[in-house]
Every structure is written in C-alpha cells, then in structure tokens.
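Box 3.1 A note on notation
Throughout this textbook, protein chains are presented in two layers. The first layer is the amino acid sequence; the second is a token string describing backbone geometry. Keep the layers aligned when reading.
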Amino acid sequence: MKSAPGGPRAADNAQVPPELRLDLPSYQGPMDLLLDLIREHEVDIFDIPIALITAEYLRYLDQLQALDLTVGGEWLEMAATLVYIKSRTLLPPDPEEDDDELGPDPREELVRRLIEYQVFKWAAEQLDDRPQLERDFFLAAPKAREEREQVGPPKLREADISDLVDALRRVIEKQREEPTWAYEITREKLTLRGMVLEISSILRDEPRISFESLFSEGRLTRHRVVTTFLALLEMTKLRMIKLFQSRLGGPDTLIIERAVIDIVEVSQTLEFYDSTP
C-alpha cells in the first residue's frame, strides 16, 4: 500500500492480509489527482465532465478516510470547489438574465489552474534533471563563462529554462486580461512535431524572434501556449535554437535565435511525439 497524502498509514502493511489490502496511488496534491482522472477517462481538459470528475475525486477522498488517513485542507478545498462548480452547471439558467450576465463557464478557472499546474510541473521536472544531465561535465572557468555570455545579440544574456517559464507566465497572465481566451470556437489540431516545424519555418525567414511573437492576435489559445512551450523545450534540448533574455531597461523579453545548424532539415528527419500535451 502506498502512503496517501496528508498523513501516515493507518496500520503496518505487513500485518494486513493481501486480500484486504487497498493500493491507492499517491499524489502530490489535488491537481495531480484531477489530471490523472482526466487522463484516465480520456476527456478534453477544456471540456471537463464536472459531474464525473467530481464523483471520482470524492470517491478517492472516501477511500482515504476509510483508511483513517488524514486529508489535508487543500484536498477538502478542492472538493468544495468541484461541488460548487457542479452545482453551478446543474442549475437551470435564469430566463430573465442575459447571456452576458450569466458570466463565464464555471469550469474556466479550474481549467486555467490545471493547465498552469501541468506546465509548471513539467518545467520543474526539467529543472530537476539539469544537474543529472550535467554531472559528467566540468564547470567552465570564469573567463570562459564571460566569453560564452557574449555569444548572441548585444545586451542579451543566455536564457535558461526558468526564463522560459517566466515568459510563459507573462503570456498566461495576459490570458486573464483577455476574455477571448475563455472559449475556442474551432480548436486547432496541434502536435509537438507540427509546432517544431512551424517554429522552424518562422526562424528560417527570421533568425531571431521574440517568444511573444509566436502568439499573434487570433491565435492566443491555451492549447497553443502549452504546445509551443513544450516544443521550445524540445528544440532547446536538441540545440536547434538558443534562448536569450533581454537586458534592456524595458519589459523582459525572451528572444529565440536560430542555431547554426539547419533546423528545418533536422526537424523533418527527427521523430517527435504526435500527441498533444
């Protein structure tokens, strides 16, 4: 039996007969559980069946309580949020209220939080892997590091994954200010491979672009933001692009620069996952 979040096991697993053992997956928090439920039922994160997900979530909490496991406050808070959203979706609309007065889909805020959590969790895992990937390399001498920082456009410094995450956060914050992000009439069919090819094509004509320029007006969707973020991570890992952070006094800007190699040719020969994030 795996230990569940919020407290220790109720009894020593070795003293429980195998037929009576209940194996519960362990989650880092309620967001982990929700994302697992969404993957398990193969539903669209932008159109969550709130009644189904709420029932599964509450069933998991019941299993924890049946094992006398302490349930943390964040788990109960999410349960209350799900029940509230479910009640909102089940209530019939007031015929006297206009569509504008009804407000946005009550699931919208939950979807936004799930997407942010998913992306930042991925970024955290990438950051955690960096020391392991570099364990076979020696750190460059100070002079060598200074010379390396001079590579690229002037007044720019080499960016790392944390700068990419910051740029993504700025785009997501812009999302909150633009109500057009709430709904997508026609959802784009985006894949990781397709996004790499799209960015490669842009960089073939313009060797240096800003991160924000990838999200032109009318193409600013959550699905595009997440797919673009993952594509840039993959391209950086494969040294297809270089990332720089602006040192200018204005707003921070993440610059994407084409690498020396022919990234269009490379992206067409490499095999990428065709599944969406």
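Confidence is low (pLDDT under 50) at residues 1-24, 133-153, 180-185, 271-277. The longest helix spans residues 108-133.
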